[in-house]
Write a structure and sequence with these properties.
single chain; alpha+beta; 7-stranded antiparallel beta sheet; 5-stranded antiparallel beta sheet; 20 strands; 32% helix; globular; disordered N terminus
């Protein structure tokens, strides 16, 4: 240990702090430029609008040096993927100009849609790092609409390969990719965009080395990692030692309908180390919600980063040296082949939430209540009426409510934990590119859990099919609602529904899974995201803030009366302070308001025989049909 300390001390003595800070900001700038280049050159909206990707720079051993702001759950996946490529090829088999590719779900921890490109960076014939980009391709083959039960039905599996050798593309492998996707021209557009991104990272990293010197840059990176480690350890040292546990559940795995999937976490804090134990998380499931071990590690790292150094950049592996993870294989977040992985992103979000829940007694001022924890997406495909061309659209990503914390309300209409910097698709873009009409995109009143500080609001999106489409949605946390903390109430759960043209009632899906639904012109799908949990008793909410909530439509008058104990003057929206205090006292004495954190919905299952369709509307012009459909939904 003394020798190691002496080596570190000697190394630190040689580090130029000014150059180190230049390197720190340079690394952030490199990944930001990689990100911008990918956005500007990608072909699919999921990349250039939704930003479903992450880029990064890694050292010669594959450790994370800097990750561009993007998807938090990729925090571990790219590093583990680079390390797997190193093991596969060995340093001696890598050469300048090589580009390494894989979408192996059990290496990346996610689904096959995530194509991961890496470039080894050489300086004077020595490997000094890697540039990497993981991005979502809308289609990699496989079934489009049905639920999956193994990886083989989910699309093309690309093992670790050299897609470029010494700067020369491997046309045979590229041909295999083209022959296994439905829209090869768009896939190849994203392919080239990712190549451009990783080459940008390589070029800019070498620019830094040439400008400041190899030793100064690599020494600066080591110093940055050591500093990140020291900061994280200091923050953990401030936490009360102890063992903290919490549990939650997922509604079901999409195959065994109604069978809950348990989530249990154990967090141990001792001195300057934290251990997150996921041994008691559910075993991998039959359905399509599994993820690989790197996703399980990411859950722990995301929670740890939020608690220790949320705003510290660049995000690097030094920040996680004080974190130990216990995760046996075969769990829903450490699944092994051939587990289905298509909806890999769903369960990790709730695991992060549950880690926060476990630590709430120890860190009441640092954690938030539960959030909606689902991307709330709809998968749509069909043919454009103008030219009969096939399209695939990943709709939704509508954002939802985040949990409140000890001193503020939760965020509304914000993307879930897994995807962080991901954006929704602009309605104008959706309508311009696809035969769809966004009728409504709004906040859901009362969806945020009541509390002294209210949970953020979920959203609702209604999208009308202007021509026949196929629609699927595979969401969760419909029944396990986002929980409140310290007396706060639960938020609304997520939900999906269909509204058939001319009908008065919606068709609901009790567990959030609507698979392979055919929508005709005039029909609409409806996505509803949950709200965040509240914090503190709603009977303690500031009256002026509550009145503003009601006037803005965030909270209905009825909910203000029932959940917050508000009393209004006559038929106005003005709160009567004296009458409110009396009502709140009465509610406290009765143990109200009552929270129901689990929604046992009585909605009929979606598999009921469909009603015979009325074809009269087909005689209408498209403009008449659109107007009539919207009138039915807006006024129902």
């Amino acid at each position: 240990m003394d020798a190691v300390a002496d080596t570190r001390a000697a190394s630190a003595a040689r580090i130029n702090p000014v150059v180190t800070e230049i390197v720190r900001n340079g690394l952030v700038a490199v990944t930001e430029e990689m990100k911008i280049n990918l956005m500007r050159t990608a072909y699919n909206m999921i990349i250039y609008e939704a930003l479903d990707f992450t880029v990064g720079i890694f050292d010669a051993q594959g450790n994370t040096v800097s990750i561009g702001l993007g998807l938090p759950m990729f925090i571990r996946g790219m590093s583990d993927t680079v390390k797997a490529k190193l093991v596969h090829f060995g340093v001696e088999s890598l050469e300048p100009g090589d580009v390494l590719l894989t979408n192996d779900a059990y290496i990346t921890g996610s689904h096959l849609n995530h194509m991961t490109f890496s470039v080894p960076i050489f300086h004077d014939s020595e490997l000094v790092g890697f540039s990497c980009c993981m991005a979502h391709w809308p289609d990699v083959g496989g079934t489009l609409m049905e639920g999956t039960t193994d990886i083989f039905s989910e699309g093309l599996q690309m093992p670790i390969v050299k897609i470029y050798r010494k700067g020369v593309p491997n046309e045979e492998l590229i041909a295999i990719i083209k022959n296994n996707v439905r829209l090869p021209e768009r896939a190849m557009g994203d392919f080239r965009a990712q190549i451009a991104a990783v080459k940008t990272g390589e070029r800019r990293f070498l620019d830094m080395i040439r400008k400041y010197g190899r030793d100064a840059v690599l020494g600066g990176i080591a110093a940055i990692m050591d500093q990140s480690e020291a900061l994280a350890r200091a923050r953990v040292r401030e936490m009360p030692d102890g063992v903290y546990e919490a549990e939650s559940f997922m509604d079901d795995d999409g195959i065994n309908v109604g069978q809950r999937v348990p989530i249990h976490v154990r967090v141990t804090v001792k001195d300057d180390r934290m251990t997150v134990d996921l041994s008691d998380v559910s075993l991998q499931v039959q359905g399509f919600y599994n993820s690989g071990v790197t996703a399980g590690r990411s859950c722990c790292q995301v929670a740890f980063k939020c608690l220790t150094s949320a705003l510290e950049l660049p995000i690097n592996d030094g920040a996680f040296r004080a974190l130990d993870i216990v995760l046996p294989p075969g769990r829903v977040v450490s699944a092994v082949k051939p587990a289905a992985m298509r909806m890999w992103m769903c369960y990790p979000m709730t695991i992060v939430d549950t880690i926060f829940k476990a630590l709430a007694p120890a860190l009441p001022n640092q954690v938030i209540a539960g959030h909606h924890a689902d991307l709330v997406v709809g998968r749509i495909n069909g043919r454009r009426p103008k030219d009969n061309s096939f399209y695939i659209y990943l709709g939704g990503l509508i954002g939802g409510g985040w949990g409140a914390k000890h001193d503020s309300d939760g965020r509304s209409a914000t993307i879930a934990m897994n995807d962080g910097d991901t954006h929704n698709g602009p309605s104008e873009q959706v309508e311009a590119k696809y035969p769809l009409l966004v009728e409504r995109y709004c906040l859901r009143p009362d969806s945020g859990g009541a509390g002294r500080f209210r949970g953020g609001l979920g959203t609702e999106q209604v999208v009308q099919a202007r021509h026949p489409i196929r629609f699927s949605s595979q969401m969760d946390r419909v029944k396990c609602k986002p929980w409140g903390l310290n007396g706060g109430m639960s938020g609304f759960g997520n939900g999906v529904a269909l509204h058939r043209f001319g009908k008065t009632e919606e068709q609901h899906f009790a567990n959030g899974k609507a698979l392979n639904q055919v929508l005709q012109a005039g029909d609409a799908y409806i996505l509803r995201s949950g709200g965040g949990g509240g914090y503190g008793s709603p009977l303690e909410r500031d009256l002026a803030t509550l009145e503003r909530d009601v006037r803005c439509g965030y909270v209905t008058k009825q909910a203000a009366e029932e959940c917050y104990g508000a009393a209004f003057q006559d038929d106005t929206l003005t709160i009567d302070a004296a009458a409110t205090e009396k009502r709140r006292t009465t509610l406290r004495e009765k143990g109200l308001p009552y929270d129901n954190p689990i929604a046992e919905t009585l909605i009929p299952v979606a598999s009921a025989p469909p009603e015979e369709r009325n074809h009269e509307h087909e005689k209408l012009t498209e403009e008449e049909r659109v107007a009539f459909a919207m009138q039915c939904r807006c006024c129902s």
